Structure to design on (394 residues):
């Protein structure tokens, strides 16, 4: 293309990221080059640093640059409240809400016979061990409201038995949602779980 | 946030790129971390390389990692056909079309009394020198169809005088355009420049 092979290679790699296509990757690279000192140099440095140091938290499976992640190392987080999520992206989404003050356990997927995902590959035995040894008061199953997510939640509930008080996220109308645009399942769930006004 | 300070810093820097916000930067960083060997490592390397070597082509002002850019060094490009563009982004847009086979001259902006952009800061004297010394047969003024772009085109035309045959991009209905959605100016331009069917 136009910018020489090194620049083209950078555009090509940027275009592989989600949310960026070939044209928006070009635009991003042009901005980087125009702001070399403010964006490109620190970005290259940050990326190399993260690439060299990033790993899975040994306790929860979150992404960290230390042995344990910031959340697991934070003594202010409730050690007896555990939230089970499917992925690191889900964990980050929960953290954006800044409401939950316990710890997490990242499964790294959901059970799927079709894709050959077994309880062992999801670290479910490790979760059971953590819940029992950590004397968890409550385990929140914050799995996606999909078929596989709910199957996995039921399997975990079976495995945990009465080891902890199990809860799941409420289902209903999303904040800002318009009934007109909601699917039948959501309306039914919201209706059956209605509460005093 | 959730991923530790180094990861957060990377997300923050990525979010400064055009087309990415805080949430899409998170998603991009998660993909990078998941595909460390295929995306993150080569991306960090490519970025550091480009950061160290990128510069302006000494002839046309395009971005390059050598003294002269790929286009200026390409002997197959017509040396006597010059296309004047406002920015490197515009040059790349022209190249995406893969129709133009001459060389470029990047102004780096347009004249603007308000922003204090003078003919000297746009390298217009250098353009005049190149057109005369390079014995250009044709100079295409491919500036944006904005007020400042057209003012700059007129100024360049004045400076070049009869040194070369001056042309500009055709104005009219864009490919795939629906008349219903076009502005009055475009319809008028397309109508006044109508051609035999």
């Amino acid at each position: 293309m136009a910018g020489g092979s090194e620049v083209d290679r950078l555009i090509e790699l940027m275009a592989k990221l989600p949310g960026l296509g070939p044209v928006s990757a070009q635009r991003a690279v042009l901005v980087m080059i125009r702001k070399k000192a403010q964006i490109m140099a620190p970005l290259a440095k940050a990326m190399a640093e993260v690439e060299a140091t990033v790993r899975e938290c040994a306790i929860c499976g979150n992404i960290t640059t230390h042995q344990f992640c910031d959340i697991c190392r934070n003594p202010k987080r409730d050690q007896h409240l555990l939230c089970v999520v499917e992925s690191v992206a889900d964990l980050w989404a929960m953290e954006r809400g800044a409401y939950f003050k316990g710890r997490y356990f990242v499964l790294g997927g959901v059970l799927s016979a079709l894709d050959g995902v077994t309880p062992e590959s999801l670290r479910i035995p490790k979760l059971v061990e953590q819940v029992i040894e950590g004397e968890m008061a409550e385990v929140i199953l914050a799995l996606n409201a999909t078929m596989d997510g709910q199957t996995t939640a039921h399997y975990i509930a079976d495995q945990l038995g009465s080891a902890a008080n199990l809860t799941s996220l409420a289902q209903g109308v999303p904040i800002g949602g318009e009934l007109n645009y909601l699917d039948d399942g959501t309306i039914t769930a919201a209706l059956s779980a209605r509460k005093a006004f």
In short: Chain A has a mean pLDDT of 90. Chain A touches chain B through 55 residues (CB under 8 Å).
